[in-house]
Task: inverse folding
């Protein structure tokens, strides 16, 4: 996993939309994934961070990207109470 | 004059106390009493009409005389049944003193204090049917048994090797045996006897016994121990129903015989201690935390019971040491409760202060031997100094940090606690509380030596030690109402003392074992596993149900150490101290971590720090070689799924075989038939049976 991908995913996991915005502005690729193929968007979906999901999608994240086990952001969003909001963005 | 709505009658006891009515009246007025005061000189005899007249009015009455209380009570009952009358001793406690003329503020304070009536405690009932074991080593036991035989159901147990002479008429059962263990209390003793054997009837000289049997158990209501040896119970004088006497002392034996003869029937005993298991810090998950109450209990009435302790109210003798040292208030003295006790102290100190008294010394004493000592000091010596305010409690050993700090906060310059030889071996807890209070006061700049024990049963020594106290001004008196548990009461007092301290400090270091302090967490090593939160009995450590987060509220921490002993990462240390900063009263974030998401399905299932740590520890393990270590980062479900899907592991079974049912078989058969028919047709064969036509 590249440093920029790790950096962006860490920003997403922190739940701080500003940090994510800054990361994207500083050149982090919204489509980058970790070593298991999990995208930043999937982590944002699992955390139910609708704002961050929107930021990543606006920056070009693939809403249908799947990890090595075939799971995508929609599947990951089932762990959050914000699932409806997240799924609405992923259509 | 009225005190708290009660008519007040004061007598100078035939002029033996220098009480001028006008002057005392003015002093009492400053302490909140109303009206004029006319001091009698012979209220119990020639001036008894004053008392009777006051009774006739029907108003509640306070009489400043305790010596003649029985007479006054009898007279009151004759005139008006159920008359509300209280008595207060101002003579031995104030008026009979070398400093009697300066004692008016104290007298006013004592009168004010008398208006306070604590709530009564609940009782337990001990029932004795009179079944008595007399345990001895010589003929004395048999003689005593024969004397008691008419009153009690007596059995004699003689220690092996005793030289008791066989009685000519065996009118009490006699056995040999050695008590290996005894338990219980009045009405419910259990004994376990070794070498147990009945006396042989043909014993000619000394009693002889048959072959002994071990491990025999029995029960009885009372035990009279005349062996003169080691007592069967710790703190034997506190065990109801267990009496001891040296067999060599006829007087002691006679006194014990006399006393035990009356121990038949039902006896009420206060439930001295109220126990609240919810805030007990004894243990969690078999790990021992606070053991203070068990350590100091002289009677072994307190025993561990899993995560909590059990206090046997039938064995508890009410010394109060447990409540003195209990950091949370789980074991709270209830005779009276702390709120009532401090309310009385507040009334006493306020009245003394309002009446013009200065540099007060609170002398805490028990209501029996302590009061006797004060009486003797007053009758035969100098009595109490004018600024020494005697404060009677049930047991001096019940005093804890809450009382000591509250007394200081209420303006007392010094606090002395009177104990005597009968408290030997029981003052460890009290001494620790005094040490703690000293540390606090000196740390805040109030100086040292404000708290101390007076350990004597000599009235002259008592006076000497009290007169030697120079008398120093206390903190500016607080008027806080003593409401809440022990810990909140202590914090109320400490906050006031800190606010008025000559040298206030933010944090005051305390010695190891003190019940206040910080929990220091090495956040780099903490994985936010929250084991400490589960172990913390007081809620000082807390989590957040929505996020992996550890918070700490210092004001609730009792330094029991359960968090430290539970922490799997061993990153917790205890820092005994009192933190006066405002932030110590709120829950502060110690560490917040991100949830670990399952790398397969995204389920949050732990904390990042914990999962990273486990993965790092196992990555070189043969079972987790290669990508297998990734399973550590998966939730419990995905771990299983991946395990089965993976081809390179012992559990791999490939794609499971599809289950076939009868329907499948029939369908396949029909399909095969249809195919065969089609093939036959393709070859021009008649498969429909048309050839028969």
Result:
């Amino acid at each position: 996993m590249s440093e920029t991908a790790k950096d962006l995913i860490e920003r997403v996991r922190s739940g701080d939309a500003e940090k994510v915005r800054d990361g994207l502005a500083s050149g982090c690729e919204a489509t980058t994934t970790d070593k298991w193929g999990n995208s930043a968007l999937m982590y944002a979906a699992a955390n139910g961070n609708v704002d961050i999901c929107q930021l990543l999608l606006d920056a070009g994240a693939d809403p249908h990207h799947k990890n090595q086990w075939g799971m995508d952001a929609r599947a990951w969003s089932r762990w959050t109470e914000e699932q409806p909001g997240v799924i609405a963005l992923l259509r | 004059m009225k005190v708290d709505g009660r008519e007040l009658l004061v007598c100078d006891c035939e002029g033996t106390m220098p009480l001028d009515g006008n002057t005392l009246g003015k002093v009492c007025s400053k302490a909140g009493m109303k009206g004029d005061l006319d001091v009698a000189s012979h209220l119990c005899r020639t001036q008894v009409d004053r008392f009777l007249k006051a009774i006739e009015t029907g108003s509640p009455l306070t009489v400043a005389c305790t010596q003649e209380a029985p007479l006054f009570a009898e007279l009151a009952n004759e005139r008006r049944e159920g008359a509300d009358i209280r008595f207060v001793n101002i003579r031995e406690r104030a008026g009979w003193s070398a400093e009697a003329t300066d004692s008016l503020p104290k007298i006013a304070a004592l009168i004010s204090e008398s208006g306070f009536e604590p709530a009564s405690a609940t009782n337990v009932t001990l029932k004795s049917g009179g079944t008595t074991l007399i345990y001895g080593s010589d003929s004395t036991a048999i003689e005593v048994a024969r004397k008691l035989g008419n009153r009690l159901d007596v059995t004699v147990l003689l220690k092996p090797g005793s030289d008791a002479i066989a009685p000519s008429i065996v009118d009490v059962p006699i056995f040999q045996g050695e008590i290996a263990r005894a338990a219980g209390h009045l009405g419910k003793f259990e004994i376990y006897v070794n070498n147990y054997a009945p006396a042989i009837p043909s014993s000619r000289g000394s009693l002889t016994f048959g072959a002994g049997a071990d491990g025999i158990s029995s029960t009885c209501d009372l035990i009279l121990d005349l062996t003169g040896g080691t007592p069967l119970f710790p703190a034997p004088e506190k065990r109801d129903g267990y009496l001891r006497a040296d067999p060599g002392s006829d007087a002691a034996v006679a006194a014990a015989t006399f006393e035990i003869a009356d121990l038949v029937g039902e006896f009420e005993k206060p439930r001295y201690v109220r126990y609240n298991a919810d805030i007990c810090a004894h243990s969690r998950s078999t790990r021992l935390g606070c053991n203070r109450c068990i350590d100091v209990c002289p009677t072994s009435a307190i025993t561990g019971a899993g995560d909590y302790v059990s206090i046997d109210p039938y064995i508890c003798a009410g010394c109060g040491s447990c409540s003195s040292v209990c950091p949370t208030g789980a074991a709270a003295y209830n005779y009276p409760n702390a709120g009532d006790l401090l309310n009385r102290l507040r009334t006493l100190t306020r009245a003394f202060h309002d009446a013009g008294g200065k540099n007060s010394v609170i002398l805490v004493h028990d209501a029996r031997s302590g009061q006797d000592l004060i009486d003797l000091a007053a009758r035969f010596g100098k009595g109490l100094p004018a600024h020494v305010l005697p404060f009677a409690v049930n047991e001096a050993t019940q005093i804890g940090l809450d009382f000591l700090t509250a007394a200081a906060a209420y303006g007392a310059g010094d606090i002395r606690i009177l104990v005597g030889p009968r408290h030997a071996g029981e003052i460890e807890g009290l001494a620790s509380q005094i040490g703690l209070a000293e540390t606090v006061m000196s740390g805040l700049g109030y100086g040292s030596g404000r708290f101390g024990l007076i350990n004597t049963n000599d009235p002259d020594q008592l006076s000497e030690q009290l007169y030697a106290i120079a008398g120093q001004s206390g903190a500016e008196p607080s008027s806080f109402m003593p409401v809440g548990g022990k810990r909140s009461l202590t914090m109320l007092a400490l906050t006031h003392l800190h606010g008025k301290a000559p040298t206030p400090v933010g944090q005051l270091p305390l010695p190891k074992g003190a019940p206040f302090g910080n929990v220091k967490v090495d956040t780099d090593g903490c994985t936010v596993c929250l084991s400490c939160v589960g172990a913390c009995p007081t809620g000082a450590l807390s989590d957040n149900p929505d996020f992996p987060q550890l918070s700490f509220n210092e004001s609730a921490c009792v330094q029991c150490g359960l968090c430290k002993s539970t922490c799997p990462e061993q990153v917790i240390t205890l820092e005994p101290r009192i933190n006066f900063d405002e932030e110590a009263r709120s829950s502060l974030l110690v560490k917040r971590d991100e949830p670990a998401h399952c790398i397969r399905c995204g389920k949050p299932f732990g904390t990042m720090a914990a999962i990273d740590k486990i993965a790092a520890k196992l990555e070189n393990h043969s079972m987790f070689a290669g990508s297998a270590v990734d399973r550590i980062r998966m939730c419990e479900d995905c771990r299983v799924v991946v395990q089965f899907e993976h081809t390179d592991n012992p559990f791999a079974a490939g794609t499971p075989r599809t289950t076939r049912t009868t329907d499948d078989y029939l369908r396949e058969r029909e399909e095969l038939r249809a195919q065969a028919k089609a093939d036959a047709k393709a070859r021009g064969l008649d498969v429909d049976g048309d050839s028969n036509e």
